[in-house]
Design a protein that fits this description.
The structure is a single chain. The chain is built from eleven helices and six strands. The chain has 310 residues and is of the alpha+beta class. The chain folds into three domains: 109 residues, no CATH class; 94 residues; 98 residues, Alpha Horseshoe (Serine Threonine Protein Phosphatase 5, Tetratricopeptide repeat), CATH 1.25.40. Strands 1, 2, 3, 4, 5 and 6 form a six-stranded antiparallel beta sheet that branches. α1 runs antiparallel to α2, α2 packs across α3 and α8 runs antiparallel to α9. The chain starts with a helix and ends in a 5-residue tail after the last helix.
Length: 310
């Protein structure tokens, strides 16, 4: 039969093994997420089916590592108390009861909660902004949650998935938000429906004029063009703004013509302001190409009159 000292030493050994195992599992999960080799499309144009399972495996390793580390830390606290209590067993019983009570306490509210993760990313610098937040109804604004350390812990789990998604789509810069599910007590997190509509992306290169043209919002387009023309800028600078490109190589005119309900008046206003009728997007489409695809006879006529080519 083991002596109290031998039992104490054995418990300490198990806890140290738990701390080491938790750290190894956590690091292994992170490495798996960062080195996922399946961020690509298959021959049918769909995401490689192995991508999701690889990410799930990485997230499971991280979660297991965190859970193991948390239990080991509780055990370590019990070992320290037991050491000063004459190596008695009651600290371990108290530790086990605390774990059970914690589970019972958080179970009515659920073991996870959904947060919004706001980010600003570029290929050169990585994530300049990554912030977990909730909507504050009283202030009608987003409110950050958690400490900086907690936010960073969540960030290192979510960011490799976002980075892979951005590179898959050949983005150079991207701002936006992604729904994030976070476990209570232990900071385990994963994105909700990434790549399946769970994210809101905003191209930093997209201008107000592009957004108005894409919505076929004639009034806003006219206001923006009037403001640009009325500002103290020369004609070449104004033309540059009119022909600004988003990351897909699309101009305001291309976006206006791409719409299934393209408004000829919007197209006419953009052409009158100096929009280049023959700029091509990265897909090789010109405004006239899109007008022909949409079979919009009036827009086709306007573009051809302006010298447009498909």
């Amino acid at each position: 039969m083991l002596t109290p000292t031998a039992k104490h030493i054995r418990r300490v050994t198990w806890i140290l093994y738990g701390l080491e195992a938790g750290a190894v599992l956590f690091v292994a999960g992170l490495v798996a997420l960062y080195l996922n080799p399946f961020w690509h499309f298959d021959e049918g144009g769909f995401l490689d089916w192995r991508l999701r399972w690889w990410n799930i495996a990485g997230e499971a390793l991280i979660a297991t590592g965190f859970f193991t580390e948390a239990l080991a830390l509780v055990g370590l606290a019990a070992v320290v108390v037991s050491r000063f209590a004459g190596r008695r067993a009651w600290p371990y019983v108290v530790a086990a009861l605390l774990v059970v009570c914690t589970v019972v306490w958080i179970s009515p509210a659920g073991f996870t909660r959904d947060l919004d993760a706001h980010f600003e990313w570029n290929l050169a610098d990585g994530f300049n902004v990554f912030r977990l937040q909730v909507w504050d109804d009283a202030a009608s604004a987003w409110r950050p949650v958690g400490s900086p350390a907690w936010q960073s812990t969540i960030g290192i789990q979510i960011q490799p998935l976002l980075r892979g998604y951005f590179k898959l789509n050949d983005f150079q810069r991207m701002n936006g938000d992604i729904g994030t599910r976070v476990a209570r007590i232990i900071p385990i997190a994963w994105p909700i429906e990434l790549g399946r509509g769970g994210e809101t992306l905003e191209d930093p290169d997209e201008t107000d004029l592009m957004r108005a043209a894409a919505r076929e919002d004639l009034k806003t387009v006219q206001q923006l063009l009037a403001a640009a023309t009325g500002a103290n800028v020369n004609a070449s600078r104004n033309a540059l703004n009119i022909n600004a490109l988003d990351q897909s190589g699309q101009t305001a005119l291309i976006l206006a013509c791409r719409s299934p309900k393209a408004n000829p008046d919007v197209v006419k206003a953009l052409l009158a302001a100096g929009a280049d009728v023959n700029l091509r997007s990265r897909t090789g489409y010109t405004p006239l190409t899109w007008a022909q695809v949409r079979n919009n006879a009036e827009v086709i006529r306007l573009l051809r009159r302006a010298g447009g080519r498909p």
